[in-house]
Amino acid sequence: MIWDDRLTGVVSFGNPEAFRYNVTVELGVRIREILSSCLQVFPMKRSVLVLLSLGVTSFAAAQIVSSPQVNGWAKASTSSWDWRYVPSGGGRGSHNYHWAPIGDQSKGVSVSMPLNGTTGTQTETGTYFSPSYIAKCWGTNSFANSATQAVYQFALEADSTFNPTLNSLDGASVGNDVLNEFFFSLSKDSDVAVKITASSNAIVGFKNLTNGDVYFWGYGSGTLSTTLPGGCTYELFVHLVEGASKDNYLKQSVNVGSLKTSVTGALTVTPSSGGGGGDGGD
Asked: Is 199 buried (19+), middle (13-18) or exposed (0-12) by CB count in 10 A?
């Protein structure tokens, strides 16, 4: 069988693979010859033709936010203990005793939070006393970045159920810990808007890590609308901590029953309009 290519005049007998190789090589040579002749006729179009020969057809504008990164986790834990009269030490023959809490059960689960992802619901259940006591929490975030706008959104939630039956020397607790830190850099001055809605047990903040400027930091909600300087790295900080406990020996209790807290928020970055600073606070 004869394979004939009318463009290059390359002929291969009985071997299709060899034919395809020869055609590819010859076509590459012909394309370079055509481009070379075009460059001689149109010298001002050299850069365009070179880009076309490399297959470059479009350019992507630089994204407004660079080096986005998330550090975070969701942790749920439970613990139980009882108070016992134990020796205080002091060597052989010592008869000194004191009351001390002795751990009975301690359980915990922890998972990190990825950028553009979720921790999933993390649940831990204490079973040393009954009824069981439960800590449950989760965190999620999303990030979109373009030349004209960057948007970071997040949500954190903690939920505890705690009402165990305890004797006079017993104690137990549940705890939730959800952290969300978002880091990013700006090459140019940019406008930023931050809005965080949080319960009073959440710590929220926003600061410039390069020069140390703190725009807001504290418990509860936070807002910000200002122009940020370029050439700096920034941190958005959100930490939700929630728990419940009861110690009958100490006669102390916190958040017995059911408790649910949450944090939601968003950060938006756009090219600077040249308007200057704004305000922050809650």
From this structure: middle
